[in-house]
Amino acid sequence: MKKIIVYIKESYDELVHKVSWPTYSELANSAVVVLYASLLIALVVFAMDFCFQNFMEKIVYPH
């Protein structure tokens, strides 16, 4: 039980005193980068899906 308490105290000390937390502006900038990257990946996946669907409809399974 003592090991668990020591572990929790050391973890708390590390989180409070040793971790370098980002500033609000750094966090906001990172969030914007993640948003744009997610949108770009979504558009790429949409384009690939659209092309594959058209390929399947026109070449593989024509009506």
Which properties best describe this structure?
membrane, 2 helices, SecE_bac, mainly alpha, SecE_sf, Protein translocase subunit SecE, transmembrane, 63 residues
Can you put this structure into words, describing what you see?
One of its GO terms (molecular function) is protein transmembrane transporter activity. It is a single-pass membrane protein. Keywords: Cell membrane, Membrane, Protein transport, Translocation, Transmembrane, Transmembrane helix, Transport. Belongs to the SecE/SEC61-gamma family. With 63 residues, this protein is mostly helical. It has one domain. It is built from two helices and no strands. It has helices at residues 2-18, 24-60.
